[in-house]
Amino acid sequence: MTDAHSSDWSYIPELANVDVNRFAIAVAGLDGQVHVAGDAARPFSIQSVSKVFTLTLALGKLGDTMWSRVGREPSGNAFNSIVQLEQEKGRPRNPFINAGAITVADLILAGHEPREAIGEIVRFVRFLADDDTIRIDERVAHSELATGDRNASLAHFMRSFGRLDNPVDHVLGVYFHHCALAVTCRQLAVAGQYLAAGGVSPKTGARVISAERARRINAVMLTCGHYDGSGEFAYRVGLPGKSGVGGAILAVAPGKASIAVWSPGLDPVGNSKLGAEALEMLTHRTGWSVFGA
Amino acid sequence: MTDAHSSDWSYIPELANVDVNRFAIAVAGLDGQVHVAGDAARPFSIQSVSKVFTLTLALGKLGDTMWSRVGREPSGNAFNSIVQLEQEKGRPRNPFINAGAITVADLILAGHEPREAIGEIVRFVRFLADDDTIRIDERVAHSELATGDRNASLAHFMRSFGRLDNPVDHVLGVYFHHCALAVTCRQLAVAGQYLAAGGVSPKTGARVISAERARRINAVMLTCGHYDGSGEFAYRVGLPGKSGVGGAILAVAPGKASIAVWSPGLDPVGNSKLGAEALEMLTHRTGWSVFGA
Amino acid sequence: MTDAHSSDWSYIPELANVDVNRFAIAVAGLDGQVHVAGDAARPFSIQSVSKVFTLTLALGKLGDTMWSRVGREPSGNAFNSIVQLEQEKGRPRNPFINAGAITVADLILAGHEPREAIGEIVRFVRFLADDDTIRIDERVAHSELATGDRNASLAHFMRSFGRLDNPVDHVLGVYFHHCALAVTCRQLAVAGQYLAAGGVSPKTGARVISAERARRINAVMLTCGHYDGSGEFAYRVGLPGKSGVGGAILAVAPGKASIAVWSPGLDPVGNSKLGAEALEMLTHRTGWSVFGA
Amino acid sequence: MTDAHSSDWSYIPELANVDVNRFAIAVAGLDGQVHVAGDAARPFSIQSVSKVFTLTLALGKLGDTMWSRVGREPSGNAFNSIVQLEQEKGRPRNPFINAGAITVADLILAGHEPREAIGEIVRFVRFLADDDTIRIDERVAHSELATGDRNASLAHFMRSFGRLDNPVDHVLGVYFHHCALAVTCRQLAVAGQYLAAGGVSPKTGARVISAERARRINAVMLTCGHYDGSGEFAYRVGLPGKSGVGGAILAVAPGKASIAVWSPGLDPVGNSKLGAEALEMLTHRTGWSVFGA
Fold first, then answer.
1. Are D232 and D267 in contact (CB under 8 A)?
2. Percent of chain B at pLDDT above 90?
3. Residues 207-246 of C with CB under 8 A from D
4. Which of C152, C155, C174 has its CA nearest to residue C90?
5. Cβ distance D131 to D190 under 8 Å?
6. pTM over 0.95
7. Ordered structural domains, chain D, with CATH
8. What is the C-alpha to C-alpha distance for residues B73 and D76, in angstroms, rounded to an integer?
9. Which pairing describes strands D248-253 and D241-243: parallel, antiparallel, or unpaired?
10. Which of A57, A270, C116, C134 has its CA 20 to 30 A from that of D79?
11. Is B256 labeled as catalytic in the residue annotation?
12. Complex ipTM, two decimals?
């Protein structure tokens, strides 16, 4: 998974054959009800949407000291990501650009074996989705390992500033694997409910994080969740959201619902075209925009 | 007025003598009530907070075609503002960085004389605040004209790409004058109410803009309103807001209130330190964050 | 005159009508002989080649303290010129990029009236060329004043860092005027002889600068004289040289000759295409490359 | 070996213990005579000076088509190296910045095993120096392999643009090994003689490259040989030269001599302080500057 440089993601060979016209949506209300439409039972590659969950996990393990390792400001375009990474001495601008998510993977690793860290992440996502069938698509994970030169470049770059504690291949192993999680829209919407519900998972009643931390993760999603299309998504949709080049978007309507959409056709900055349009229509009709009815 | 390069704004000589410990707050609820504390009747220099009102005015005059001239993505730090301006051929990233606000001033000018455009802006802010006593502080305006080399540089730079229609000195004249508006916290909070109230000014009942446009301006404020501290403000305060180097912040709690704070001590990215802290306490206690209760 | 952004210089309206197929060359040997071919008596606009003479003049007035205000390193492409100017706090990389030459103009001005500084430069070039008929083409000078937004941007940018002592319009007035000098190839070749002859003008026997300073100016010409084509010119021609968007190149074969070529067709980085080819053939045949026979 | 980011090179642990006050010089005239002073028989790490020899070797193997893979323009500072590498889609500016030398290593590899390419380079340098005792210091080579994150970052970055044909670890293996060649000043001066002597090795009479190619390599050395101190070296010394962070500089006086100096104390841009001063004194006394007597 890579900051989008082109409007398709053929750079992950395993994903290049998916039909771009497919579409699915799932809306998980705080009452536990999940409404779905389209291919909502079809698994897709979660890609960068997983960064929301690894951020949550890292905050749970390290608390706010985590923010000494990664910022929370928007980063501008992919070009500027690298320029800024150099200027800011290898400290990524936010946890949702690739450099930042690689740093989060490094923090979760914390000296353990990659398979332990990967296992921990998978268990966490299963817990959030209340679904033990969620798995990593190994072909996708290995497809990335083979082609991920840009991420390897970022990781070595940060390491040259002393910003990674673990070996680059371990960190990237964790990163590529959590991006290769296969989920359905239904699973993803349920997994994101804690962000809409003040940190508590409505289905199980378990507290995942504090209400304040849920608000804060939503804030980072809103300002940084769509690469260089974050401003546009806020303008059009008006919800915290996180996109992935697999075509998924997880959006959060605080106090109302968690919404997952999926459609593989991407816009020039790498976000799902139909997905964003569907969310725009949804907030238009429901008045769920955080910016006013 | 300039993208903040240092933690004080002594570069506007007229403003350098204000006591940094002063503080004021005004909360204008949608019922028309205004609650104030501190120096709420003391006028201060509105500086970049005025960009919210010139954006609103330009959208009213040109509609969404305005967005062909200025983007709505966060810009990263001041350094990147210029790099990106070059990469993007003189089209500013958003209307709240200086280059963007200069472009908005150019659009409002539209071939007229500077004093006409300035007059139109002053009348618009008076209308929003329902207060005809609001004036421009000419000493501040001229203080900027004398020292505004960085803004002159940006304006000529954009003009070299064919991005300004009016002469640079006309455009900067308009820009420096609207930044030199003197307002009180009470006036500013009332002026911003239309953004909290779906585009309608509660005090007068007048519709300023459509509800959708109010939401969208709020979105741009949230992602871009605090220069390179926009992510931080969203994270801590959780409200759309716009800061100025005069020490003011206008924050919007959609459906609830418009809040103006003022305190001249600035943080390193140029935003009011006490002002942001007061807003953080306020949203903590009221649950007004747009990101959840 | 502007760092070349396009392969033509239609941005100086007065120059856009010159026939691109014209060509002239003049070789001024150290014995005082001048050999010419082509349109060698036709005046053209000297443009950036004048920067060699203003650098010489400024070094004569200020000595090596001048280098505290401008560097002597190559700058990469025009994009990087601005990025580096920001990084290096308004100190230009070298005296041959526009920002550097504007700084040199500021140093020559030194508080005087623009017409005095312009007069001093004209007298200096006449002295070097031993020809009092050399004049400024006022139409070209004013053509630049009207369109020079990019240079105005650079000048205000440097002034915002406290790097210019004189008002921007004074500095640009001097700069645009010395770029608008009209010279013939013969005049230009003679004017450059002191650089080939250890600082002495062979025609008059007058010492212009020390031998060491002549060597050093040659070094700056070789590393920085052709914008982002400096490496290419060194590689192909092997002589110190300075180009201008008017189509002129002044090249120096130390101990042998001063050579002026002129042909208005430019390559993508803004240097005379035929001019560079002619010089490549010349050094190939004469063995005059400084890099070996 | 890395573009110098600090004034010492403690990032190559094996090299950090060398006494910074040591000094050596060797001048190899075209008559075959070699004059030495100081520690001229003491081996040091050649580091980036080896890039002159790998460039020569690659040009011999591929001819001028090599230039489609790497440019020949100066690159500005290390920061700009990366910015420009992104802008120019992974094509390095010149063969003497690290990215460029890594590309040259990739071209020499050409699908072979690293040890074959390394062997070919060692044999070539031995041939140039007419000395079969020259070896690679394996501790230095492995010291780099362990710490070379910045070069790994560059290599993966170029590979992400499709700019490297061989696996990154193979390319870096070749690169780190040729930088770890141990030579004395005497050996280095002799090895560089072909550049002063029109492409022929005076000691053996063997033609290494054509006279034209020797001139051109000298040109690239002059404009790009000292990282962001290239302009300064040209200005002060006036000779084509290539420095390495091991403290060596190879300088070429065309038609006169090849000069090697070594002293491990570096200036802020990573070039030998005493070495450059010695060369400045030498050209001052001998009149060998290419820019005039």
1. no
2. 82
3. 211, 214-216, 218-220, 222-224, 228-232, 234-235, 238, 240
4. C155
5. yes
6. no
7. 13-283 (3.40.710.10)
8. 30
9. antiparallel
10. A270
11. no
12. 0.93
